[in-house]
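Section handout 9: paired folding examples.
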Amino acid sequence: MTLKQPVSITKILIANRGEIACRIIRTCQKMGIRTVAVYSAADQRALHVVHADEAIDIGASEPKASYLNQQTLIAAAAKSGAQAIHPGYGFLSENPEFASACESAGIVFIGPSARAIESMGSKSAAKEIMLKAGVPLLPGYNGQDQSEDTLRREAEAIGYPVLIKASAGGGGRGIRIVREAQEFSQALASCKRESLASFGNDHVLIERYLPMARHIEVQVFGDHHGNTVHLFERDCSMQRRHQKVIEEAPAPLLSEEQRQSLGQTAVRAAQAIGYTGAGTVEFIAHAQADGSVSDSYFMEMNTRLQVEHPVTEMITGLDLVEWQIRVARGERLPLAQNEITQRGHAIEVRICAEDPEREFMPATGKITEFAVAAHEPGRVRYDSGLQQGDEVSAYYDSMVAKLICWGEDRATAIAQTRSALATTRLRGPSTNLRFLSRLLGLSAFADARLFTGLIEAEKAALTGFSSVSDEILVLAVAACLRSGPWANAAQPASTETSADPWALASGWRQVAPAQRTAVFQSQEDRWSVPVQFSPLAVAVSGSLLPIALLPQDEPDQIAVRWNQRVIRARTSWLGVSTGLTGPSGAANRLRISTDHHDVVLDWIDPYAAEEDEASRDGSLASPMPGQVSRIALPTGSTVKKGDTLVVISAMKMEFLVAAPRDGTIAEILYKEGDLVTEGAVLVTLEAPAGH
C-alpha cells in the first residue's frame, strides 16, 4: 500500500447536524482543531451551530437542498479554509461521489476511500466480495436485473418470508418484510421509493428473513500504513421497524471462540478492500431460545462512524472520532490489536420523538422541558443536539438524544441506565422514554434472551402503559374546557371556587341543555363522558363527581380538583383537521402526559353529521406531521378499500394512507411537496355511484 503523506488539519467542516455534529465538535475542541458548522433554515439556532467556531448557511430545510447538497458543502469548506470535512453518519457519510468530490477539491474526507465506500456501500457488491472471501452469506439474490418479475421469482425460490432491502441502504431504512407472495408488489414499490428518497438509488436485494436472529456488529479501524484492528463487538438486536433502539457492548452470551471468530472475520473483510478509518462489519446470527447464537452470516459493512459508537468508547476508554482524525492526517493507529482492552459493560438507548402506542409514529413539536440525570464521566453520558425550547422537525431523524451508561457488569449497566432514564424529564412531543424503561425491565432482556423480534413479541407488555383511566378521562374533559373545543379563544375564567358556566366560556347558553357529552376515542376504544355545567361535574365509571379547574402558569398545564384530590398533566392539541374541529377551531387530537401515562385521544364531536363521521376515518388523515411525497391517484378516480391514496414522508420514513372503503376521490386537499400536520385530512371520498 502506498503511504499517504501526513497532512495538517487545523480546521474541520462538519457536514452534518444534531448530536453527531456536537459530538465531533467536542473532540475537535479537545484536539485544538477549529470547527465549521453548516446549517439549514430549520437549524439556524441549533446547538451545533452555537458550539462551533464558525457556522455557514447552506440553504433550505429539506435535506436535498442543504445537507445533501455536495457542491454547497464543498464550497462552504473552501470558503471557510477548512482542510477537511467530517461527514458524521447518515446524509453523505457513505456517498462515494462526495468522497471523490472532496478529494478533487483538495479537501480531506474523514472516512474511507471512495472505492471502499462504493464496494461496501452496495450490499450486493459487498456480498460478492464476502462470497469470494469465503464468508458465510444468507441465501439471497444480489443481481443486476431489477425487474419485478425477476425479483418476484427470486423471492419465491428463496422461500417466504423474505426481506427486500435497499442495496445502498442503512439505518434500518429501505427494508420490507414480505411474508406472503401477494404482499410482494406493494412492498417492493414502497422499498424502492424509500430507497430512492433516502439514498438516491432504488436498487434492491432479496434475502431470507430469519424470525429468530441476533444482530451483532464489530467495530473495525484501518490506517494508511496497512494496519487494521477491531475494537470488539456490539449487540444491536433490540429493534423496531428494523431500526436500533438499544445497543450494548460487549455482546452478551457469546463464547470466547465466537468473539474471536467475529473479530477476525471483520478484520479480514476490512483488509480485503484496503479499508481506512472507522467502519462496522455487521452479522446476523441464529438466536437460540436461551439467547445464545449458532451460525452467523455476513450482513453488510457500514463505512462510517455508527450511531452506537459510544458503547465501544465506554468499554475501551478510546475516542473513536479522535482516531478518525488521526488516521485522516496520515498517522498510524494509536494502538495495536493486543494493546486494545475492554472493561465492564455499556448500554446505549436512543431517546426518540415518537409514539410507541401508535406503531412508533414519529412526533414533532417544541421541547418544553428537557432535564437529564447528572453526567458521570465514564458512567453516564448524554449525546444530544437539542435542548429545551428547540423544535423537533419533520425534516430530520426523530432521535432527540442518546443515553449511554457503563457498569462493571451487564446487570449494573442495566440498573444504571434505568436509573438515568427515571430522572430524565422530556416534555413536548411524544417520546419513547417509558417504553425504553419497560424494555430494559423485561426479564428476557435481563437474561440476554435477545432477538430482533423481541419488541414485537413483547408488544403487549411494552405498550400497555397508556391505558385510559378515569383520571385520564377527567383530564381530557378539563383540556376541552380550558383550551379545546369547549373553550373560547380566551382562557376560561373558572377557578377552584367558581363553577359558573358563564365563566367557563365553554359555549354553554341558557337555552341549551345544561349537560353535554364528551366523546373520546383511541385506536380501539371509545368513551362517552357526560359533563354537567352547573355545577361543573363529570360522570366517569357511573359516578357524577364535581371538578374544578385550578389556575396554571403555563398554557399546556392542567390541574383539576376531582374526587378529593388534585390531578395534573400537560396537554396539547395536535394538528388541525379540516372539518374535525370544535367550536373554538382547536384540533381534534389530544395528547395527555402525566408522570405515569402518555396518552393520545381523538375528541369526537357527538353532534357531527353522519357523513362527517365517515370522513373522520383516520385512514384519510395524515398519521403524523410530514410531507406529501406522492399522490397516488387523481381527483375523480374510483378506488377500492385498501388502495393507496397518498404517501406521507417524515423523518426519513414513509407511510401509506389507504382508502377506508370503496368510493370516488372527490377532492385532494394537498399537493406533492406540501407539509401537513398530524391529523390533517388529505383526501375526501364520495360513495360509489348507485350507493
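Moving on to protein 2 of 2.
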Amino acid sequence: MRIPSSVFAVGRWALVVGVVAGSVALFSATRKTEFTVHDKAFYADQNTVNFVRPGLVFAIKSANITADGTMSVDYTIADPKGQPLDLAGVLTPGAVSVSFIAAYIPQGQEEFWAYNNEPVTSPITKATATQATTDKGGTSVPAVSGGIGEYVYTFKTKAVAQNGSAFDKTATHRIGIYGSRNLVEFDMGTYYDDAVISWVPAGGTSAPRDVVRTGACNNCHGTGSDSGLAAHGGSRKSVELCDMCHTKQTVDPDTGNNMSMQVFIHKLHMGDDLPSVKAGGKYQIIGHNQSVSDYSTVAFPANGAAASCQSCHDPKQGASQQNAYMTKPNRDACGSCHDDVNFATGANHANLPQVSDNQCSSCHMPTGESEFDTSVTGAHTVANKSAQLAGVNIDIVKVDNGVAGKAPLVTFTAKDNKGNAIPMSSLTGGSNSLRFVLTGPTTDYGATNFGSDVTTPGYVSETANTASKCDAGGTCTYQFTHAIPASAKGTFAVGSESRRTGTLNAGTVNQTTVNYGATNDVFYFSVDGSTVTPRRKVVEIAKCDSCHGYLSLHGANRNDNTDYCVFCHNPYNTDISQRPNAKDPADKAAPAQGINFAYMIHRIHTGEELPALGASYTVVGNGGSHNDFTEVRYPLMSKTGSVGYTQACYTCHVNGSEAVLPIGKNQVTNPQSPLSPAGATTSACTACHPANSTFAHAMSATDTKFGESCDVCHGGTAEFNTTKVHAGQ
C-alpha cells in the first residue's frame, strides 16, 4: 500500500477509507458465503478482503448507435456484491482494463459480422488475412461527473454495413465488453469478466445467434468459481462474446484456417478424429505472438465421441436456436468435422457436388425414418446407444449366505429394456457374458485372499451365465464357488457385469454388430452381523458423466458406476497380468504399473502435463494393448483459460472427500513408482505431484510403525490443508 504524500493523495485516500468503511459491514456479515473454500480470497486476511473487495463484474445498461454510425455503450464495473469499482484503480483497489467490440447480423444471414476488423500478416508465410478485433482509440468517461462504477464508452469505429453502406437499423446488433482487474499487488491474482447486450436500433425484439450456451461448454470446462470457459488469457468467458469475433471474417493467415465459431469449434473438438488428422495432417491455429495451438491431439471425452452432438447442443441449456444443428445443416458446419468432403467436386459426398447450402436439409432432415440414415440425428447415431439394441439390465436383489466362511448366493434379475426376461443362453458365447465379482471389506479393498486358486488381488470374479438358474420372469440365482474367508469381518460387496452383442440394421447391406453392456450394479452386505457400511463415496459417476456422457470401459463390461471400478482398481492391483502379453517390447520389459483408482485417475487426468513433470503413465491392457495417457488433455480451464486445470479437485470429488486424506488405508503397490509400496495418501498426491522432492517430503512424514502423518499439515483445517492449497484465485 502506497503512503500518500500530497494534499490530493490525502483526499483521495480519505475517499478510499470511506468506501472501505462502507464495505466493512457488508463483508463481515457475509464473509463465509461471499467466497467458497475453493477461492484463495476465502483464506485471505479479513481486513485485506474488506479493503480490496476482490472480484469483477461487468454489466451493460444500454447501447446506442447515432444516425452517423457512432456507437456507444453505458456499462458498469462492480465487485461481486455490486459495489462500484473505479476504472483507473485510483479510488478503489486494482485497475480495470476493458475492451469493446461491436457486431451485427446482416439480413438473411445467421452469424454475426464484426464492425471492428483489421488485416493481419503472418511473419512466416507473409500471407495477410482479416480478423475481427477490438475497437481502438475510443473513449470511456464517467456516466455521472465525478462518479465511479458507471461509464460510457464511445467507439472510434463507425457502424458500417457489410456491403459498405450505412448501417442497418433494423438488424440485430450486439456490443460486447471484456476485461480484467489486476489485484496481483494484494496477492489475489487477476479477475476476469465479460458482458454483452443485443438490441435492434430501430426498436423491436432482437434475434441474436443463440445456438450453444456457455453452460454446455462448462459441463467439461468447469463450473466452479475458479474454473470455466475462458480464452485469450481468461477475459473471454461466454459463447455470446466468442460469437462476435469468431465470424467468417476471421482467418488464420499462417494456416488459412477459418475461425468462424461453427468451423473452429467443431474442428477443435473433433481433434484426433478429424479425417485430415487420421490421414497424417494436423489441425493447428497460429495465434498471438505466433503461438502454436495444436488441436490434433484433442480427444472428445463423451461416449460416442464427436457424434454426441448434444454434449454441446445441450437441450437442457435453453438456447433459443438449440435445434439449429438439426434444422439448418450447412457446408461450413458439416464440412468442419467431415473435412475429407469436397463439396465442390462431390468427393466423399455420394459424388454429389453441393454449390450452396440451400438443398442441404432436403437430404439431411432433422430426423429420418431409421437410425444411421442421412438425417442429422440418424447420421450421428451412437452405435452402442442404438434403440435397436434390446438392452441388458442386471440388478442384484439380495445376497444369501453372505457370512464369513460361506459362499454367497446371489439373487438377481436379468431383463432387457422392455422388462422382458433375458435367457442366460443370450449371455453366453462370443462376446456375451455375465459375471459376478466378490470383494471386501469396504473399509478398503485389495487385501482379502479368496483362495489359493485366485490370482486377482482382493477380489474374485466368476462367470455366471451358464451356472445361473432363472424363472420365466427373469429372476435368477447364482451360487458363488468361492467362499468369504472365515476370518472376514465387516461389510463385503458383490458387483455384476454383463455384455451382449447386438445386430444393427439386420438384413441390410449396412448390417453390423456392436457390443454393449449393463450398468454395473453393486450390493453391500455384512458378513458378521455388523451394520452394513458401503465403501466411502469419494467420487460420483454423475460428475464423470458431465464430460463422458456415459462412462463405458473395458469393452463395454464396466459401465457408469465408480463404486464398481474400485473393486479391481484397488491398492494391491497392477497390470502385471497383461505385461507378458505386451505388444510394445518396451512395455514388456518395464515393471508393472499400479492401477489403484486414486492413483490411476489422478495420473490419467494430469495427462499431457506429466512429461514436463518428468513422469508418465502407461498401462498395458487386455491383449497386451499399449495405453499411454500422457496424451490426455484434461478439459477443465483455469481462470486464465489454460486447460489441464487439475487443482479444482471438487470437480470429481464429492462429500468434501478431497479434503479427507486416506490415512491408514491399505498401502499402494506400484512397481513403476520411486516408492512402492507407498501410503495411500502419498500415492494419491504424488500421482499429480511426482517430483522426487515430494516423495522425500512424504517419506519424512511417514513412520514404519505409525504410518503417514500427512493429515497433521494437510488435513482438516490445518494450515496447509488440501482444499486451501488447491484453491484458485
